[in-house]
Write a structure and sequence with these properties.
3% strand; mainly alpha
């Protein structure tokens, strides 16, 4: 039997249409949900852009002279190297790492015509003629390389020359400095 409610105008009870039950929800695909979210965000961003324009329309603006704001780099020497390590071998490896960062890295020679150095060349330059310290640093560096890349690495120079960029050799010098510090060398 249909539901009834009193008519406001006549005071009579009139039948009403039965409310249709809602359709079951449809499961949307991931792409459809993304599209709906994108549409909702676009609307919100458009509304925010209009609100920003309305809220800032009264603010006078003029052209900005960028010569007062933008300056070129100042020619300065490299920043001094902080003493991260107190042990001699670790400090030497840190200085060699810094030398490669600031002076450049090369492969195939201890040093090239531009002053760039390989890993062993940087260690030798920073050791200052102390062959014992140089040998200890090279041994720790080779150990760090072999820990990371296996025992197939023959020597520091062969490892250095096997790379086309300085990224991995620099990382290995840094890791070797930490290893030497851990060992108290």
């Amino acid at each position: 039997m249909p539901e009834t409610h009193p008519s406001l105008a006549t005071g009579h009870i009139a039948p009403t249409a039965q409310a249709a039950s809602p359709a079951p929800p449809v499961e949307l695909s991931f792409e459809e949900r993304l599209a709906l979210t994108n549409a909702a965000m676009t609307i919100r961003l458009d509304e925010a852009a209009v609100a920003y324009e309305v809220n800032t329309a009264h603010i006078p603006t003029g052209p900005v002279d960028l010569t007062d704001l933008v300056t070129g780099p100042v020619d300065m020497p490299p920043a001094p190297l902080p003493n991260l390590y107190l042990t001699p071998v670790a400090a030497l490896l840190q200085r060699a790492h810094h030398r490669l960062l600031t002076g450049g890295w090369c492969a195939g020679a201890l040093a090239d015509e531009d002053g760039a150095r390989c890993m062993l060349g940087a260690i030798r330059a920073e050791a200052g003629g102390n062959r014992s310290l140089e040998a200890d640093a090279a041994a720790v560096l080779l150990d760090a390389i072999r820990r990371r890349f296996g025992d197939d690495v023959d020597s520091v120079p062969s490892f250095n020359d096997a790379h086309a960029t300085s990224r991995i050799p620099l990382r290995m010098l840094d890791q070797a400095a930490g290893l030497a510090d851990t060992r108290g060398l």
